[in-house]
Amino acid sequence: MTDYSAEADQLVNQIVIAIANWSTAVAVASVQWLLSALGQSSEPDLSVIVPVYDRMLAISLLLVGAIALLYIGVAAANYAGHLFGQ
Known about the structure:
mainly alpha
């Protein structure tokens, strides 16, 4: 009688190793693409990064504004509560 758990362990290990190898290959290809997109010039080529930077800047400004408004709203509610004795 064969030991199915050992065969199952071996199969799972092979699948996990294949997925890890595939993930590594994708990561290496992505880094190579990024380096080729940046070019070989000695000056920084920010044209690749600018669209992402613009989006992140807009999102961060929206978050800062929302947090500031939330803080102002809480402070105003606390101040109004002190004014009216509540």
